[in-house]
Amino acid sequence: MSYKIHYFLSASIVFLFLITITVQAGGGGGGGGTPPPPPPPPPPCGYQTPGCYVQDGNKLENPTTPENFSFYLAQNACIGGGCTCSLEGFVSDLKQTDPDNSGGACACISGTSWTDNIGCCGDDATDCGLIAEETRFGQVTEKYLCSMDQNFIGSWLPAEPNKGLINYVACSNKELLSDGNNWTECSSFGIIRIDDRDYLCTGELGNQSWIECCGSGSCKSDSSRADTATTGQSRILENTTYYCASDKTIVTDLDIKDRETCNNAKNPNGTNAGFRWTGTLCCSENDDLGEYYNDPGGIGGCWDKEAVLTGDTAPQREDVANIDGIFYGCSIDVSALFPAINQSLLDIKDYHTQQPLIQNKQHCYQDPSKFYFCSFNNTWKLADGQDRSRLSTAPGSFQNVQQPSECCSTTSCWNGSLCLANQADNPASQPINGYRCIDGDWQPAQLRLTPDGRGSGYCQEQSQCLVDTSPNADSRCIQNTEFIDGTDDYCEDGDWTSRTKFVALQLIDISKTSNFVVFCDTPENTLNNLNYLVQGQLVGNFVTTENTNNFCTLIFNGKVLIGTSLNKPVADLTPLLNIIGVSNCNAALINDGQYHACSGTNKVWYNQKLNSIIYSDQSFTIGTTNFLGTFINFIKDPFDTIKNRIMATIQEPFDTSYLDSLKRFNKLYISKSGGKEIRGTVEGRGLNNLIMEYKNFNTDICRFIDEFNEKNEDAGSGIECSKDGSTYYVLAQGNQFTKINPDAIWNDFTSKLRIS
Questions:
Q1: Number of structural domains, the chain?
Q2: Using one digit for the tens of pLDDT, what is the confidence trace for 430-447?
Q3: What angle do CA 347, 350, 351 make, to 5 degrees?
Q4: Cβ-count burial of 8 within 10 angstroms (0-12 exposed, 13-18 middle, 19+ buried)?
């Protein structure tokens, strides 16, 4: 292309007028002749109007081809040829023949584009893909691309307003990209960034050699003509997959991008790639071979290029689960079955950190949120927010055990199929196969009775005693060696006994080497006279069930000692203390389970742990007492012998409840005089049992018993006797509603007897 500018001279139309001038020779006919007439004037010129003209001189109505184009007239012009031109000029002087120098001429050719100071695009085949510079004041201000299609129809495209545009020049089979300053061919592989987006050059000339990454926005190039990519679309170049990210960058690693790009990733053929954003990483791009990784704090991890979301197990592995982006093993044992496989599993490295992928946990491991736990069967299970952190095992005696152990809460127990809730605070909860779940441990169940015998249930520990089974009870069970405030009920290794028994044991311990009588019963039966005055008040007013329980008396060596358990703190019973001769027992407030003197007179002794008192009108001494030894030697063993002999020699009037019902001993009689001895007790719930032993007696006690029984027995009561040598054994059974009431005949068989 040559650069030309034509200027046409403007001329006014001149009209010539013929003027006839008569010339007379010699004036006045002075002898001259008449001149000849002038020649005729030339004819006016023909003219051509503005427009495009072809080679044959015809004017065109529409643009033509470069080969057929002749010239362009911008105005009327005379044709010439010996005529008089009254216009501005002739065609030969005014015609514009070079389209590169004339916008009008450029427009005469079909498919061309004109730009001032640049010229015509498309009038010459050599214009194909031409880049022309526009200069002002010696500086290049713009570069234009002559873009022509395969038919060489073209147009000028300036670089600056088309920044980021990919344009295909079909006539030369080249694709050029505007960077705002120039047009660049895709001649070598690489990525360039223009403004806010990346362009990938495939390195091959031709159509779609440039790829525009439009991301989540709009494209600058025409997607029907250029290769454009939106979020997640990919191309494979030189055996590498390139992805267009949502932020309009082109990357090969989606781990450094975002959720939108990863989850919307496409294969080059346009199908969904199936990648998954796990929180901060993408699982798994085509170029990541065998990708395994943890994504701490994310929604999952990557297992061999497959996303495993939190709460899901790895493919083909129920012992590996992802929890909050981290893979955990459930007690994977390399010493168990298939050790090589398990070891290779634990040897897998995190693709990104090169640290071990799996954190192997022991049974009952729970994530901090308690959503999952490692089951005893080496699988991950849902915990549903419940504590499953402690391994519990069903006792071997349980039947139909589906699984021997499982993870339960710290207070529940595995019964073979499920975790049983803690039964510790529910005495009415029934045992399973003889066991109850107590604070996470299976404990042998022992049915206990309340002190009145009306309620039954279970305690947490075998040594505890059942107080109350009602759900709102302040105390359902009490510990061994404790007693219920305000009562005589004392817990001894799971069974209810009485504090009165310990008063009796202390009295026995004082007198056990001598002849003696120990008698424990109600105050009315043990104290001879309650109606005498002390400081103007009746003694009976202070000796009440509100203040005291049964009394025990000891008679030995001419002394009488009296003891009882108290139902109020000793400091609140000053009037009672005054009766027995002391103002207080502060000196005896030593909680060691032994009796201590309340004053220097040694007439009153107090046991703080048992809240019981022993007194006499004479001074006496109490040493350290072995209550258990005394109980075994003077009560347990002797009464066990009595029960065994009764069981062997007597047909019970009603049942064998006497074998288990004798435990309280708050009514007790033991008499020793020379070789003769009497032992007896009575108690029971619903049915009272009285058992007696008379040792070394010559009187035929059984004859009197049989006569009494014949007169008084009924269907619900009776009294029987047996003899073994010189020893007699008696069993009476009944209650207040039967003819024979053991409570009613108790005194007749004990304190009213006189051994001689």
A1: 5
A2: 999 999 999 999 999 999
A3: 120
A4: middle
